[in-house]
Amino acid sequence: MTRDTVLLDVDGTLIDSTYHCAIAWAKAFETCGMQPPLWRIHRAIGMGGDQLVEHVTDERVEDEHGDALREAWEDAYRPMLEEVRAFDGVRELVDLLHERGMRVALATSSNSEFADRALETIGMRADDFDSLTTSSDADASKPEPDILASALEKAGGTGALLVGDSTWDIEAARRLGAPCVAVRTGGFGVDELTEAGAVLVVDAVGDLLDADWDELLHTDPH
């Protein structure tokens, strides 16, 4: 398959927001009288809110409180945005991939408000990318592949490789038929990212400036 598009996850991959997201979810659950362990919440970060609530709790909680919890999460996360920082090397990686003739697309489970703030955090604009896909562009978030498929289509690409930070990213890429390069900045370990199917694991996105992109783009998903 010809892979002409690199899809970039955002939270935990381009910006250091994973633990902010987890704490915001803990605060959201507290508004409904629930206190799931923070480690369990962290392990679900990478899913979108439409998937996370039931995964962390159960179907009843999703049915009865899902919408309220997602709204409470937004309210809890919004004040934390000033604390979120970009990882080094994001712009340089995007420029490198474009220079190699690749399309580069953002694929995030966040809504458009938080996607726009992420762009501000990395010091880039939407038109620096070939497409930007958010939760509103797909029926279901990761680990379903909908957001990735939408990002690829909007970018005009024919095949993709994903850069992400969680096992949920890897699973979504696998369902799309795409390989996934994983970064450790989401808090998942090398072994579990590798076992989940990552074709390469690096510490952070800046390390991909020295990656062998010719090899990666011709690697089949594991």
TrEMBL record:
> Hydrolase among the record's keywords?
yes
Q: Name one GO biological process term.
A: DNA repair
Q: Which Pfam families match?
A: Hydrolase (PF00702)
Any one Gene Ontology MF annotation carried by this entry is: phosphoglycolate phosphatase activity
Keyword Hydrolase part of the UniProt annotation? yes
Q: Tell me a GO cellular component.
A: cytosol
The UniProt entry, under InterPro entries, shows: HAD-like_hydrolase_sf, HAD-like_sf, HAD-SF_hydro_IA, HAD_sf, PGP-like_dom2
What keywords are assigned to this protein?
A: Hydrolase
Which protein are we looking at? HAD family hydrolase
- Protein's organism: Actinomyces radicidentis
